[in-house]
Automatic annotation (TrEMBL):
Keywords: Membrane, Transmembrane, Transmembrane helix
UniProt keyword annotation of Membrane present: yes
InterPro entries membership: BaxI_1-like
Stretches that traverse the bilayer: 67-87, 99-120, 132-152, 158-180, 192-212, 224-247, 259-278
Organism, as annotated: Nocardioides cavernaquae
Protein's recorded name: Bax inhibitor-1/YccA family protein
Pfam families (UniProt xref): BaxI_1 (PF12811)
Amino acid sequence: MNSNNPVFNNSPAFNGQGASTYGNQTYPGAGAAYPAPGQQYGDASSWGTGTPGAPVQADRALTIDDVVQKTGISLGLVVVVAAALWFGTGDISTADGNYGMLIGLTAVGMIGGLIIGLVAAFKKSMLSPGLVLAYAALEGLFMGGISKVIQAQVDSPIVMQAILGTIAAAGGMLAAYKFFNIKIGDKFRRGFIAASFGFLGLMLLEMVLSAFGNGLGLFGDGGMGFVFALAGLGFGVVGLLLDFDMVERGIAAGVSQRFAWTAAFGLTASLVMVYFYLLRLLSILNQD
């Protein structure tokens, strides 16, 4: 079962295409059934009932603790970088604030995060910790900057409300998935992925049209902006549900614990999406 998240969808470890694996071990191909010269064998006393001469196991299967730990590190970096940008740029409503630096770093985070996100989405193998942490840092810049700009436009503490709402959404989706034993059907998955691509295409079209002054208002504070933000929030929340399913299936399949970083990337991206569109909705609702 594939996820709407392309990071999980393209990873053989999570999309069920790793047919040559048993647990987290890969069957050797032709001519590779035995260790190469110099490869170490395990201690004979530790072979037990396994195959005599088996090499030392250099890896172990993925666990939920691995996913939680790596996702916590990734999200923690997002928060730390966002807070550093927020407090480091001062009060942007006065001359003491550095509004130019805020906008510049926000743009760096947005563009850099988009680039790494596209690279990760089309990467077939597992993601490296460095790539995931770089993405988290860039998303921290974008989230911290855009949050400060939007918060400056309203009186209500919508940033804190969006943070609490994101936590509630993630917890609610996880609880619903576990306690109601939700099964993700193949038709639902395909339909949701198709709709996600449509949403992305519409967003890119709006960016192009807005550059020429003919936007549809999807990024504005009017009715179209509200509908678009509501749709984005819906995609993010349901996407979390599909991502939980992918992680559970990966753990059940016994994929390598190294894929915890790939899982962390996908979950971080989904949570960032939920937070951003929830912040947009709150901003629109609090406009005068």
